[in-house]
Automatic annotation (TrEMBL), chain A:
Descriptive protein name: Signal recognition particle protein
Subunit organization: Part of the signal recognition particle protein translocation system, which is composed of SRP and FtsY.
Annotated organism of origin: Sediminivirga luteola
Secretion signal span: none
Cell compartments where the protein resides: Cytoplasm
UniProt: GTP binding residues: 107-114, 192-196, 250-253
Record lineage: Bacteria, Bacillati, Actinomycetota, Actinomycetes, Micrococcales
One example of a Gene Ontology biological process annotation: SRP-dependent cotranslational protein targeting to membrane
Bias type Basic residues, positions: 463-477
PROSITE patterns documented for this protein: SRP54
Segments of skewed composition (Basic and acidic residues): 485-497
Segments for region (Disordered): 431-533
TrEMBL record, chain B:
Stretches that traverse the bilayer: 6-26
Protein's name in the database: Signal recognition particle receptor FtsY
SMART domains named in the record: AAA, SRP54, SRP54_N
A GO CC term attached to the entry: plasma membrane
Any one GO MF annotation of this record: GTP binding
Location in or out of the cell: Cell membrane; Cytoplasm
Family, as annotated: Belongs to the GTP-binding SRP family. FtsY subfamily.
Subunit record text: Part of the signal recognition particle protein translocation system, which is composed of SRP and FtsY.
Species per Swiss-Prot/TrEMBL record: Sediminivirga luteola
Gene: ftsY
SRP54-type proteins GTP-binding domain residues: 345-358
GO biological process, one term: SRP-dependent cotranslational protein targeting to membrane
Keyword Secreted annotated: no
Length: 533, 372
């Protein structure tokens, strides 16, 4: 279904073709879609309401009705507003004029405070500070131990005078810690507190007492990116209780859309300063409002995709590949294997496709996709000899039969793979010669005539036996089933007729079949990649 | 040509060869076709309306009450798909509640993290029922809503922990994302089991997080339960799970509780590791599967909870859900959708940091809390 906001809006606006301007009813329909998208991303209801109100006002103005592409214009407005609320600029930690600078962490249970304390200490050490960790979580069993181990890994001193597990007074520990830091010349004190609920008055008072005792320069509210509607209540409670100065969004490496970021920022007006993105000590970064906005709207996170790709792809191999493409040489199956290996290292293929803009419309299809298909394709390629891989043209009938036997697939599978490989190669050639992103075979959205090029794919049971019969009869790609063969022929003819010009559309990935590919329509960071090439 | 371009091209290239999206499209069309059928049969039922089929070939027809007849007619019309029927229904009935009331109801559901889709569905169904019954009273509507929700939560489900199997030990694997409360839950379950006079052994297969094994051992030692743990940090969690179960088999323990490290569901490697932990833990059992795989879900979790449940169910086939942190302001409404989609019952709820704050899940209480 349409999950991505831009897809939804495109669908809503489809009926508007030919209309001079948007009526109020049109805008209301749009607003409903925006509301739904935000709710699906776990943005809190009151925030959604205020937000859609603001967007509605702007959407009714000339700004939208006079735009060439109203749906994109609305998406842009929504994006702008989101970035506005999330804070355009990232705020840095404010250090005290006279050290030590005190940073206090607060949040619900399991939000990730102790882990964050370690990350902060590690980061500050690398910035040339001498941080000290203070164990004020005396509630949870062995929280003190955990902090000690985390501190050790981060190379920071941990002040833990009390054993914890319900013993000791956290307020006193916090107060003493400041003196200790002064005598030991630590310039930063990080106070880790116990997790507490917003409605737990006693514990909230204790947190407020700790705050009063250490007079921190920064109070960071740690909140789980997966939190739902409760974000508002919790944020308000902590804001009243400890009056935090900044927010840290944890577990952002998950696949939650993170509407909580918007809720908290909008309800409390406090900036989101950091994002915690993993379990390692270094998985910690400053918060990027623009990326977060795209994420909430499910517009695909191309930046993250590229970053991830850069991390996993072998630089040397990539360079070799680049040279090859520059020289105008063809890709061969060896290159394909290398690429596939790298992609496999990046994790789930589904996840990766999901990061592409507009991919959400394929969500259901993606769910049904069998990741093992990659392994099957790999098996086929690996069953080829090196010569065959370097020069696929030498693949004749008997070689194909051998490959099929070797990989445990059918000849039809091999044929189909080679067919797709040829298509992809053509596509790469066009891309390399600088005509932008060409039509991609097999990647079309609904209504794309290229579809029937993959007969039998995903046909499920009965496929194997049919493949064998086919193998005896002929080598070509035509189907053994007469009705199907006719359909194929027809489709092929249609395919010729309706051939899209090269670079016309990103295979239905972005805007759907009817719309022209326009690099300007893509989310930030994506346009530059394909534009003008 | 820049390297980033190349990377993207590379990815696209591989995708194209795999024919991924093409396959997907074909499958999707089929899926869509399948989906259409059940949709039409998904018409709300009005339990107040009696079915016409008389029981057996009995004595005499029992005439229905006159005032029930109009409701029945409207019900029939509501079920019909023809335009005429729909038109007649709107003529015969009117929406007796104003938009504000409906909005209020939807808001209640949304605020409980039920989710935008299911909330809208529930409200639509309710609207239809209200039309059929012709109620004007918001109180009745509330009662109807409660009824609908309760039906979704399904009080009939078996929510008992499966620890009384024929073969000992019963093995319980506890899984979930980071910070959901797995270790705490394991500690609490151990207490309950000890209170029921069962012998328990804990397996600290969370070898990743600092001091996780100590945390579990502390829980265990409070009730005199031993903990099987790795000799060093960062050991293979599967081997710890194996040793715990093996020791349970040797010592004839009633229940072995295995705690695992928190993992986000989109980390493929970690999910594979979890699958391995489960497989390896089953080895000493001689082909018998683990008795219970409990997914710990934080009640504050929003719509991502669905994704969590889906992925964990796929990886280790969860058999029950523990909803933790219900003592806060969060309602945990996401489990309604989870239970409906996966059919996995919520078995236990965590109600705080106290040692004994673990209770069996009560559907009625849960629904009442949702609507409060």
């Amino acid at each position: 279904m349409f999950t991505s906001l831009s897809d939804r809006l495109s669908a809503t606006f489809k009926n508007l073709r030919g209309k001079g301007r948007l009526s109020e009813a049109d805008v209301d329909a749009t607003i409903r879609e925006i509301r739904r998208a935000l709710l699906d991303a776990d943005v809190a209801l009151p925030v959604v309401r205020a937000f859609t109100g603001a967007v509605r006002e702007r959407a009714l103005s000339d700004e939208v009705s006079q735009a060439l592409n109203p749906s994109q214009q609305v998406v842009k407005i929504v994006n702008d507003e989101l970035v506005g609320i999330l804070g355009g600029q990232t705020r840095r930690i404010q250090f005290a004029k006279r050290p030590p600078t005190v940073i206090m962490l607060a949040g619900l249970q399991g939000a990730g405070k102790t882990t964050l304390a370690g990350k902060l200490a590690h980061w500050l050490t690398s910035e040339g500070h001498r941080p000290m960790l203070v164990a004020c979580d005396l509630q949870r069993p062995n929280a003190v131990n955990q902090l000690q181990i985390v501190g050790e890994r981060a190379g920071a001193f941990v002040y833990a005078p009390e054993p914890g597990n319900g013993v000791g007074d956290p307020v006193k520990v916090a107060r003493d810690a400041i003196e200790v830091a002064k005598t030991k010349l630590h310039d930063i004190v990080i106070v880790d507190t116990a997790g507490r609920l917003g409605i737990d008055e006693e514990l909230m008072r204790q947190a407020a007492d700790i705050r009063a005792a250490v007079n921190p320069d920064e109070v960071l509210f740690v909140i789980d990116a997966m939190i739902g509607q409760d974000a508002v209540t919790t944020a308000q409670a902590f804001n009243e209780g400890v009056d935090f100065t900044g927010v840290v969004l944890s577990k952002l490496d998950g696949d939650a859309r993170g509407g909580a970021a918007l809720s908290v920022a909008s309800v409390t007006g406090k900036p989101i300063m950091f994002a915690s993105t993993g379990e390692g000590l270094t998985d910690f970064e400053t918060f990027h409002p623009d990326r977060m906005a795209s994420r909430i709207l499910d517009m695909g996170d191309v930046l993250t995709l590229i970053e991830q790709a850069e991390k996993t792809f072998d630089a040397k191999q990539t360079e070799q590949l680049a040279k090859k493409v520059e020289k105008g040489e063809d890709f061969d199956l060896n290159d394909f294997l290398v690429q596939m290996e790298s992609i496999k290292k990046m994790g789930s293929l589904k996840k990766m496709i999901a990061m592409m803009p507009g991919a959400a419309q394929f969500k259901e299809q993606l769910e049904a996709f069998d990741e093992r298909e990659i392994d099957r394709v790999e098996a086929i390629v690996r069953s080829m000899t090196p010569q065959e891989r370097a020069n696929p043209r030498i693949l004749n009938g008997s070689r194909r039969a051998r490959i099929a036997r070797g990989s445990g697939r059918t000849v039809t599978d091999v044929n189909q793979l080679m067919e797709r490989f040829e298509h992809a190669r053509k596509m790469m050639r066009q891309a390399a010669s600088g005509r932008g992103m060409p039509q991609m075979p097999g990647m079309g959205g609904p209504g794309m005539p290229q579809m029937p090029q993959m007969p039998g794919m995903g046909a499920g049971g009965g496929k194997k036996t049919r493949g064998k019969q086919q193998a005896k009869k002929r080598k070509g790609g035509k189907s053994g089933n007469p009705a199907k063969r006719a359909a194929e022929a027809k489709a092929a003819a249609e395919g010729k007729k309706t051939q899209h010009p090269a670079g016309a559309s990103f295979g239905g990935f972005d805007t759907g079949p009817e719309e022209q590919f326009d690099p300007g329509n893509l989310p930030k960071g994506f346009g530059g990649i394909f534009g003008g090439r | 040509m820049e390297t980033t371009d190349l990377l993207i091209f590379g990815i696209v290239f591989v995708l194209a060869v795999l024919g991924t999206v093409g396959v997907l499209f074909l499958r999707a069309t089929r899926l869509r076709r399948q989906e259409q059928a059940p949709l039409e049969t998904d018409v709300p039922e009005a339990p107040t309306v009696e079915e016409e089929t008389p029981p057996a070939p009995p004595l005499r027809d029992v005439p229905t009450e006159p005032q029930g007849r109009l409701a029945r007619l409207r019900d029939r019309l509501a079920k019909s798909n023809s335009t005429l029927g729909r038109g007649l229904l709107s003529l015969l009935s009117q929406d007796t509640l104003d938009e504000a009331t409906w909005e209020e109801i939807e808001d209640t559901l949304l605020l409980a993290d039920i989710g935008a889709g299911p909330s809208a569905e529930l409200v639509d169904r309710l609207r239809e029922r209200v039309r059929v019954l012709g109620t004007r009273d918001p109180g009745t509507v509330q009662a109807l809503l409660r009824e609908e929700l309760l039906a979704l939560v399904d009080p009939q489900m078996d929510r008992a922990l499966n620890v009384d199997g024929e073969q000992k030990p019963a093995v319980i694997l506890v899984v979930g994302v980071n910070g959901a409360g797995k270790t705490t839950t394991v500690g609490k379950i151990a207490r309950v089991l000890v209170a029921e006079h069962r012998s328990v052994l804990l397996g600290a297969a969370d070898t990743f997080r600092a001091a996780a094994a100590e945390q579990l051992a502390t829980w265990g030692s409070r009730v005199g339960v031993e903990t099987e743990r790795a000799e060093q940090e960062g050991a293979d969690p599967a081997s710890v799970a194996y040793r715990a179960v093996e020791r349970g088999v040797q010592e004839g323990t009633d229940v072995v509780l295995v705690d695992t490290a928190g993992r986000l569901q989109n980390k493929v490697g970690l999910m594979d590791q979890l699958g391995k932990v489960k497989r390896v833990a089953e080895k000493p059992l001689g082909g018998r599967p683990v008795d219970e795989v409990l997914l710990v879900l934080d009640a504050t979790t929003g719509q991502n909870g669905m994704q969590q449940a889906r992925v964990f169910a796929e990886a280790v086939n969860i058999s029950g859900i523990v909803l933790t942190k219900l003592d806060g302001t969060a309602k945990g409404g996401i489990v309604v959708a989870v239970q409906r989609e996966l059919g996995v019952p919520v078995k236990l709820v965590g109600l705080g940091e106290g040692a004994d704050d673990l209770a069996p899940f009560d559907p009625e209480e849960f629904v009442d809390a949702l609507l409060r």
